[in-house]
Design goal:
Layout (H helix, E strand, L loop, with lengths): L5 E4 L13 H8 L11 E5 L5 H9 L4 E6 L6 E7 L4 E6 L2 E6 L5 H17 L4 H6 L11 E6 L5 E7 L5 H10 L9 E6 L8 H13 L5 E5 L1 H9 L6 E4 L5 H8 L5 E5 L7 H9 L7
Parallel strand pairs: 1-2, 2-3, 3-4, 8-12, 9-10, 9-12, 10-11
Antiparallel strand pairs: 4-5, 5-6, 7-8
């Protein structure tokens, strides 16, 4: 349908595993994006991702312009340093170091930014404006946008809206980012089922619970049958409540939160947890924009 000048692969995980037999099979399917490259086009591949060799092998079949990025020392564009408190990151390429200001928290976002800069370097002779433009960038709704909400009964809370979808790798990255930012109050997570995982669903959901045990989280609200089964199989040493459907969460969440708390919402779209973000924004005394 189109002939891209740059094809980017950020990562591969067990998302949609139900339709595939292995992670390598998913990787080869994703690598299909390379087949449409325009003449002289480039592939930009995260050096840190699983199945990197698969992506690199497939990319070499269609182009000689292969660019890698990531935290790995073998990356062409390397994330050398990232400070989650200030948003500054340092990138090295061909012996040159570049400082970039990132107005969003999370090392996973910082790594993606390095990939975006690497892509710009292929597209434009002068790609410095791409770096400057990052200072005015902000995440989208459902993809990391932060909403400040003042509830009718008084408390002001921050909502980290990651509710668009929930691949296992993305959930883990978001939970790890909790430790990257300061919080004036308690940390609350609302997690909806990760779907289309097939036989690995239980392993993926219990992995999230194991990570939660070691995260700075004060309360967890779970939605969906997959988390119910995981909670039965894995001990969670955090206060939590489980719900069959997302519409049961909001009353209890409103009653729980206090001034200064932060609420991170993450789940498959079909889990309905995005509706919790929407309703909290709707009832806010002072709508955010």
């Amino acid at each position: 349908m189109c002939r891209p000048d740059v094809a980017i692969v950020t990562n591969v995980s067990n998302a949609h595993r139900k339709a595939y037999n292995s992670l390598e099979e998913i990787a080869r399917e994703k690598a299909g994006v390379f087949s449409g490259l325009a003449s002289g086009g480039a592939t930009v591949i995260c050096r840190d991702t699983e199945c990197f060799e698969v992506f690199y092998e497939e990319a070499k079949k269609v182009t000689d312009n292969l660019i890698t990025y990531g935290k790995s020392a073998d990356s062409d564009w390397r994330l050398q340093r990232y400070d989650p408190l200030t948003g500054w990151l340092r990138v090295s390429v061909r012996g040159t170091e570049i400082d970039v200001c990132l107005p969003a928290a999370g090392e996973h976002i910082a790594v993606n930014v390095v990939g975006a800069i690497a892509a710009a370097s292929h597209l434009y002779e002068n790609w410095a404006p791409a770096i400057a433009g990052l200072a005015g960038w902000s995440p989208l709704d459902g993809r990391g946008r932060v909403h400040n909400v003042i509830l009718p009964d008084g408390p002001e809370v921050r909502i980290f809206d990651e509710s668009f979808n929930a691949a296992p790798g993305a959930v883990i990255a978001v939970l790890k980012a909790l430790a990257d930012r300061p919080s004036a109050g308690r940390r609350v997570v609302v997690l909806g089922d990760m779907l289309e995982l097939g036989a690995v669903s239980m392993d993926c959901h219990t992995e999230v619970l194991s990570l939660l045990n070691n995260c700075n989280v004060d309360m967890a609200f779970f939605v969906g049958d997959e988390y119910r089964k995981a909670l039965q199989a894995c001990e969670l040493r955090k206060p939590y409540v489980w719900y069959e459907a997302a519409d049961g969460v909001l009353p209890d969440l409103r009653a729980f939160v206090q001034d200064g708390d932060e609420v991170t919402v993450k789940g498959a779209h079909a889990s309905g947890v995005h509706s919790i973000v929407r309703e909290m924004r709707r009832i806010s005394v002072q709508p955010d924009h």
